[in-house]
């Protein structure tokens, strides 16, 4: 009888876990819809609005949660979740307030920007994307989820899947580049890595795809700026990765700051309801970005009450920091500006997410102190981070096979990024303990071994302008600015260079020169470092440029003068080891660019899948032609195209074949190509397939990525790579926004980058 009463109590209310943590796997609660409905029937309006409120945790410290500013609101049921609170101890204290002191004892969500790892930090997302390896990318998210969940976090504001074709925008570092097809594959991999197809696991966390929508295309590349584009471009070029995340079952979506069709995304009903829910079938909840609702006031959409009502009616369920929902929706309900049904639906979606995470069954599910001690920043996770980081590096130039370096002689390591461990994790590494990151200096010394002498000099500061350096090294990403004069720094560097057999120049951006609110108009290496590099080149010693960046840079001068360039991005906590592994040939570089490198900032935006004008250039040498679509002072093509990346070995493509020159809409074609490792090293190659629709009812891009495979070939080995083409690969949104494949002629290109020139053709019949 006692057991029956206990089960009845648990089934009818949330109070069953209030005083004691239930034993795992022993307590059963009612099915989700029934459970949530019963819980909502007990909620007051204030408690419902509280579930829609997502404040930041402020300065809660262990042992002080009860006296924090947010504690009172939690106890009154006015908080649905918190973010930016870290550690099991702190989170457990705060969760205890919710489940023991609030009337209905509803557990909280705990969110954090777990963007590219937790304490074990992987390359920035742009770097991760350059692996072109979905298994590795998914694995990085899985490890991030394991560590974050072990530390109390159950919700991440990731993945960011915004397509961007303008590297002036700093947050290009946080995305996966310019291509919707590749971006879609990465979106799925990240969602699957975080959520693992099962949110009931204690090592999976709720993902939040962002920023919906179009955030990566602001005018002028300036963060938070206006976005204006046609619907046909939205659906064909910018929407696919968001939809892929929804199709993968992402649990939440974050609204973007920008406007869409003149209405801020946070209050855009067409975007949040018509597209996201009705067309794509999204079942989770939508959260604003930081203060997204009150920022609509500056957009010119009305006062806080008006924009809060507009956001809720548009289909936004949770208000991050703005407190517009908490403070104004009751009045709007009284005035008939919102309906109780709309509020109830929002509350239901948030409670369902908590149910799916298992928080009603065990509100302390993510508060296991044993896991926190044994599953974060482990030796195994660090090893995987090192391996993944090495595969994200892109070899841009290797004249006369200068790389790989020998583990002998004397290496001069010079540059402001050479001994800068705090910068190796890159932007948006909020949980990283910077003291654990590995600098390039440390990595080279340890990987090279005792038989190699490594000399170091800083050579220059990040930039001549101290204020600029301060702004570019926020959040503990210091470069320890050197007070010596530029002449003194250079003299020390030249002395090191004189004693060295080869120079490794560690130059580029600091970690916070890219990322949120780090837009740039000049994409070149800062002048102080350019001057240093030029002085090193004049010594006549061979120079390897290890380029650190969070975006494509303009390195036209460097490409002409430096014999070897390795693009390192910001490769995470194990960066120093990973870069050294590649420099010395322990790992053959295999990264391929996912974002075009321009010759000049004046070319931006620039991307491979552009459309032709009616007056394209008639020559392929980039020579200027009057009355053609080109520049009078620059070539059209980029410095490095999408998909580009060298290896220490070479690959030959041959024998490209297609199974038929015709395909009907229900059929399938097979495309095969032989790839041979013709060099002297074992290596990996990403084989890329592009399609061009030659004639359409609307203009079509010159080519679009539609398939890729990353293969491993031993020296001298040949492999036949095959791709299947179906009608789905040929579909696009037409002028009526219908997703169609139109009969006609198509070209297929296969090769090692977007300039692939091996071609076969076929016809799609009616």
TrEMBL record:
- Which keywords label this protein? Glycosidase, Hydrolase, Signal
- Entry-linked Gene3D superfamilies: Glycoside hydrolase family 3 C-terminal domain, Glycoside hydrolase, family 3, N-terminal domain, Immunoglobulins
Highest taxon of the lineage: Bacteria
Q: Which residues form the Fibronectin type III-like domain?
A: 685-754
Question: What enzyme class is recorded for this protein?
Answer: hydrolase
Family designation: Belongs to the glycosyl hydrolase 3 family.
Key word Signal present: yes
- GO terms, molecular function: beta-glucosidase activity
Q: Name one Pfam family in it.
A: Glyco_hydro_3
- Cited InterPro entries: Cellulose_Degrad_GH3, Fn3-like, GH, Glyco_hydro_3_AS, Glyco_hydro_3_C, Glyco_hydro_3_C_sf, Glyco_hydro_3_N, Glyco_hydro_3_N_sf
Report what the protein is called. beta-glucosidase
Quote the catalytic activity from the record.
Answer: Hydrolysis of terminal, non-reducing beta-D-glucosyl residues with release of beta-D-glucose
The encoding gene: bglX
**EC number(s) reported in the record:** 3.2.1.21
